[in-house]
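Title: Comparing notes on inverse folding

I've been comparing how different people in this forum approach sequence design from structure. To keep things fair, I'm posting one structure and asking everyone to reply with a full sequence. Here's the target:
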């Protein structure tokens, strides 16, 4: 059984499309989920969002035992959560850290990502379309050549 790709989303991303559209655009998280499933080219996607740190850690633990790769937009937890960093450290597969906005162009509180310390790659500033690119890149990182 091929392992799924986990696409995990942090706090406030439920409001994607309504929240700060000048930064994140009008695309909703449901549309983003559809894009990830399309970009996965038939590979199973586990797509989750939570405003709760413990839930995101629970899904990372799930991926440790049964996931091929993790695409994660930890949102504000990127800069605050050592607990999420510690969970990701236990994951052997590729991790793609994703941000809709270019965090390095924003206020200083968004400059020091804890997750980047364990991420295989970081995508930031491509808007919601970054999810599609991150998923496609993940197929390559996990060596999914099913469509090659
Ligand atoms: C989303 C957030 O909620 C912010 O806390 C991050 C990230 C940036 C994003 O661009 O996807 O700083």
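Reply #1:
Here's my take.
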């Amino acid at each position: 059984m091929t392992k799924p790709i986990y696409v995990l989303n942090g706090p406030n991303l439920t409001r994607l499309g309504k929240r700060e559209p000048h930064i994140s655009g009008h695309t909703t998280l449901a549309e983003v989920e559809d894009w990830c499933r399309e970009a996965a080219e038939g590979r199973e996607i586990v797509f989750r969002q939570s405003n709760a740190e413990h839930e995101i850690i629970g899904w990372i633990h799930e991926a440790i035992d049964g996931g091929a790769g993790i695409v994660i937009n930890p949102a504000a937890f990127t800069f605050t959560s050592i607990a999420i960093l510690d969970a990701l450290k236990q994951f052997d597969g590729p991790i793609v850290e994703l941000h809709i906005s270019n965090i390095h162009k924003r206020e200083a509180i968004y400059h020091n990502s804890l997750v980047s310390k364990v991420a295989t790659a970081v995508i930031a500033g491509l808007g919601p379309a970054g999810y599609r690119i991150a998923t496609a890149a993940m197929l390559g990182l996990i060596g999914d050549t099913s469509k090659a």
